[in-house]
Design a protein that fits this description.
The complex is a heterodimer. By secondary structure, chain A is of the alpha+beta class. Chain A has four helices and five strands, in the order βαβαβααββ. Chain A has helices at about 25-30, 65-80, 85, 95-110, and strands at about 1-15, 40-50, 80, 115-125, 130. Chain A has a five-stranded mixed sheet with strand order 3-1-2-4-5. The two termini of chain A are about 25 Å apart. Chain B has one domain: Tetrahydropterin Synthase, Chain A. Chain B has helices at about 25-30, 65-80, 95-110, and strands at about 1-15, 40-55, 80-85, 115-125, 130. In chain B, β4 and β5 (about 130) form a beta hairpin. In chain B, α2 crosses α3. The chains are: A alpha+beta, B alpha+beta. The interface of A and B includes residues 96, 126 and 132 of A.
Chain lengths: ~140, ~130
């Protein structure tokens, strides 16, 4: 089994808010991240796939295809967007780094052709990242 | 859905690698430049990885404010800007990054129950890192 990782960067804004909480609860829990005007990050995305090496091509997966899939399924939807307002799954789910990693996994999972998705890692900042391995 | 959250922190500290159980010659041979009597320093990066279900109400594995507060109080304040060899924590063992990594793991394991601790990674320099998962 060989593991291959492809990186991509995207810039997006978001804010943290739960409409089921009072304004005071939201502020206490989320602090400055609750500002409804949002704030932004340069996110780094690492997609790790796993599989056996194809003896003819020497590839686990065709990187050109993986790059296209990541562009179409993730970056087109999220890059230079306000996540809460422009990405459908974040209309009713808080766009935390955790939920971003899960959402990106769900967007990619069924679209890969040969290899299997192993891990999605999302860096919100260089010092904060989340890994999702598809575990329920 | 279970996710793994990792957070990185920096602290600076000095240490000297020297074992009372070894002779001068053996210390020199084992530790080389790290045995120099005045010690030397590092900007350590400690990376804490916790895992758990993503809370439906908050979208989080654990609240970063809680984790940051705990690490600041129990790890960074304890080891930051110290000479590790002078600390009571290292009165009985050599302050290698292995031993420091295990100590930090045990501090977090004992004192931070809000999420499951997966592992602690400690980067001594850009070229070497140590991980301990219990």
């Amino acid at each position: 089994m060989v593991y291959l990782t492809r990186k991509a960067e995207f810039s997006a804004s978001h804010y943290y808010h739960n409409p089921a909480f009072t304004p005071e609860q939201n502020r206490a829990l989320f602090g400055k991240c609750n500002n409804p005007n949002g704030h932004g990050h340069n996110y780094t995305l690492e997609v790790t796939v796993k599989g056996e090496v194809d003896p003819r091509s020497g590839f686990v997966v065709d990187l050109k295809r993986l790059k296209e899939i990541m562009q179409r399924e993730v970056l087109d939807a999220m890059d230079h967007r306000f996540l809460n307002k422009e990405v459908p799954e974040f209309a009713d789910k808080i766009p935390t780094t955790e939920n971003l990693a899960i959402s990106i996994w769900q967007r990619l999972d069924t679209k890969l052709e040969r290899a299997q998705l192993h891990r999605v890692r999302v860096y919100e900042t260089p010092d904060l990242f989340v890994d999702f391995y598809g575990e329920a | 859905m279970k996710a793994h959250l990792s957070r990185r922190y920096l602290f600076s500290a000095s240490h000297r690698l020297h074992s009372e159980a070894m002779s001068e010659a053996e210390n020199q041979q084992t530790y080389g430049k790290c045995n120099n009597p005045y010690g030397h320093g590092h900007n350590y990066i400690v990376q804490i990885t916790v895992s758990g279900p993503v809370d439906e109400n908050t979208g989080m594995v654990c609240n970063l404010v809680d984790l940051d507060g705990f690490i600041e109080r129990e790890v960074l304040a304890r080891y930051g800007h110290e000479n590790l060899n002078t600390l009571q924590e290292f009165s009985g063992e050599v302050p290698t990054t292995e031993n420091l990594c295990i100590q930090i793991y045990e501090i977090v394991q004992r004192g931070f129950p809000r999420a499951h601790l997966e592992r602690v990674r400690l980067e001594e320099t850009m070229m070497n890192a140590f991980e301990y998962a219990g």
